[in-house]
Amino acid sequence: MNSKHQQVKLNDGHFIPGLGFGTYTPEEVPKSKTMEATKMAIDAGFRHIDTAYSYHVEEEVGQVIQSKIADGTVKREDIFLTSKLWCTFHRPELVQPSLERSLKKLQLDYVDLYLIHYPVPIKPGEDDFPTDENGKSMLDTVDFCATWEAMEKCKDAGLAKSIGVSNFNHRQLEMILNKPGLKYKPVCNQVECHLYLNQSKLLDFCQSKDIVLVAYGALGTQRPKRWVDPSSPVLLNDPILCAMAKKHSRSSALIALRYLLQRGIVPLAQSYKEKEIRENIQVFDFHLSSEDMKVLDGLNKNFRYVPAEFLAGHPNYPFSDEY
Prior knowledge:
- It is built from 10 helices and 10 strands.
- By secondary structure, the protein is an alpha/beta fold.
- The chain has a single domain (3-301), classed as NADP-dependent oxidoreductase domain (TIM Barrel).
- The strands form 2 sheets. Strands 3-4-5-6-7-8-9-10 form an 8-stranded parallel β-barrel, surrounded by 4 helices. It has a two-stranded antiparallel sheet with strand order 1-2.
- α3 (92-106) crosses α4.
- The chain is globular.
- The two termini are 34 Å apart.
- The relative contact order is 0.15.
């Protein structure tokens, strides 16, 4: 089944496919694997592709999309492509040039969705993660409401069809929503969300404001050495989840994705294996009962795989708040 059959309406009138394919690539994974996986995802029926400047695979993702347009598999308008503004480009005058740089790498005229990657600015420059002589992140002071105004200009210029945020807590979302002269509301907030961090309070808040919650780490993340504690629990091995998977004759991954989907969340799934990619798109083919959903609700531990500690010294660090 093609994921574009299930779409979620955004508050600006555009539609986002209900399941996305993530392209974050840890340093230890060759970029060629991301190209292969993205190709397999489009062939399997994924039409929502999520990437970011800081993943350093925009060129590879762009090549795959162009090759799939060239071979007639898809048209440009069939693909919903998300990219993200990195923290070193928060200063308003850097926002549009950064998006233009991403578009050049992607070989596209526009992205379907452009997100502020984190609410925390980092000192501008070519280094994504600049540090001082003590190894501390060199953070910046930029009001993200000013960054948001520059995002609105990107939408007006036709470079991004929709604009949103990522990793914002409810208080930070309110600051944008209450900003004087707000032209466009964020259409979504992309956050870490899975069975161990089900984000129920943030979800309620976003839904009350007509903001879609998009889930990264939906399957418990790829566990890149740089960002995830190797001793953290492996979500897909959870015994309750595995029992539920057995009951439904589905994979643990499918149950984890379906749980998010039924709560009105748009999950991003990622894999490098063709079998898993083809399997993940079958998430629309079955249903969990309300009893199943209650059992899965009980797995929440408010456990975050990716605490983004490199941003922790900033007043806008988003994960100190409860939600």
